[in-house]
Amino acid sequence: MANIVIDNIKKSFGAFQALKGVSLTINDGEFVSLLGPSGCGKTTLLRIIAGLETATSGDIRIGERSVIGLPPKDRGLAMVFQNYAVFPHMTVFENVAFGLRMQKADEARVKKQVEKAAGLLHIEPYLDRYPNKLSGGQRQRVAVARALAVEPGVLLMDEPLSNLDALLRLEMRTELKTVLQEAGTTTIYVTHDQTEAMGLSDRIAVVHDGRIEQVGTPVEVYNHPATRFVGSFIGNPPMNFITMPVNNGQVAVGAQTFAVPAKGSEIVLGLRGETVERTSTGQGLDIQVRVAEPMGPHLLLTGSILGQPARVILPATEAVKNGEIVGLKLDASRLTWLSPESGVSYPVAA
Ligand SMILES: Nc1ncnc2c1ncn2[C@@H]1O[C@H](COP(=O)(O)OP(=O)(O)OP(=O)(O)O)[C@@H](O)[C@H]1O
């Protein structure tokens, strides 16, 4: 069991700064995702924690002990990386048993742990096979099972589900969460998939351009994004950003008025598409609908609000035609207000 402290980690590759001072504490038994677009520095950070890459400056502490300078094997962690390395000359059983053999576990424990991990990842039927007789997805599950079999205090995972088909991904996501919670494993999980991060994580660290832009529970980062980047990266459809005029500290839309913290004459409204309610036009914000798409569980409207691109979601039972203007009532408690200059959101009123 261990907590992890990432303390002002910087990493440069030549003149390029991949990590620009990252700090984050992961509590004992917590599941934290590093979520961000390709190239933002997630994998580099994970490799530095693992000891596969050296930081330019900063400290990593696992269970209070600085691990900077320690080789990966002495850091008390297990890893599952995207390019899941399974040993081709070993059966699936021996692959999963690998870490336990290294620990010189007795045969009874090896068998018990391998069976437990194999059951979890649905690879029991393949235990006697060699990896070249498995699909990519099956091999990936072997790699995850191998990491879990040793019941590590800290588990680092880099897009471990990326080679699985959508249904298996969903199933594994649920199972991973359960097993890691039960084992009390401290987990850092790298992904660019916001759905995966939302579903799995106790907290999400949103990484952007070598920095952590926000750390919070999935609900916090979704409902109260700290920046425009976070609001647009998390959520499908992404948050809408609509620049609006401010008069005497108030924004008026139809019959609705909102007190806002803006200093200047404009503010950006961050609007989650599903927080609106249909009303008559002119009562709230009106959307000029370009396309209305029935999505099954809901109706997606794409168009413009105050001449700015917008997407909102209405219940599937609503009927809207392409080209129609639809009135939307806003829920004051679900709105985010952001500075037009910095893209940073104003704190939520207590
Ligand atoms: N060994 C290296 N030499 C030079 N540049 C590197 C090296 N490793 C990574 N980078 C650069 O550092 C940046 C961060 O890379 P990193 O792999 O951490 O991103 P990522 O967020 O994990 O992206 P992805 O999801 O695509 O893996 C990228 O711009 C990448 O090109």
From TrEMBL:
GO terms for molecular function: ATP binding. InterPro entries: AAA+_ATPase, ABC_transporter-like_ATP-bd, ABC_transporter-like_CS, ABC_transpr_MalK/UgpC-like, Mo/tungstate-bd_C_term_dom, NA-bd_OB-fold, P-loop_NTPase. The keyword Transmembrane helix does not apply. Keywords: ATP-binding, Cell inner membrane, Cell membrane, Membrane, Nucleotide-binding, Sugar transport, Transport. It comes from the Bacteria. Its main location: membrane. It is found in: Cell inner membrane. It is a peripheral membrane protein. Residues 4-234 form the ABC transporter domain. Belongs to the ABC transporter superfamily. This is Multiple sugar transport system ATP-binding protein. It comes from Pseudorhizobium tarimense.
